[in-house]
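pasting Ribosomal protein S18 acetylase RimI for the record, 157 residues
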Amino acid sequence: MPNTVRLAEEKDIPAVIELLKQVNRVHHDGRPDLFKLATKYTEDELRNIFADKNTPVFVCTDSSERVVGHGFCVFQRPQNTRLLTDIVTLYIDDICVDETARGQQVGRMIYEHIVAYARECGCYNVTLNVWNCNPSAMKFYEKLGLVPYKVGMEKIL
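structre below
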């Protein structure tokens, strides 16, 4: 059976934690001034995230049911604003493909699944952020047809 993408379950927590460590390493290596070596979520936090319909998390599993990638999402809608239109966005907080599965279209599968899910849910768009210190992620998302819609800038003091 080929790779499949599905909603994350509690049994996936150990594998997701390992993927979160890989994501953190990329960010820490690129910006050690901003990122500590840590895991973004605890097991208990993941349980709560997985159970919340407003924060869907998807995993991609290989033919042996091993988790080889994940996609964390958050539904967003502007609140108390006179400037922004009332749209629902599915924000992609994180996509990670296991180092051993890169180049096998896992990231594309997760992304395409998220886009289909967002359409089914009536979202206007999907958005995500990419750190400048991760040019391979930027190139990956551009290949998928994403375009910048805002840019964050900084001056270190």
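The chain has one domain: 4-143.
Residues 4-143 form a domain with the Aminopeptidase fold (CATH 3.40.630.30).
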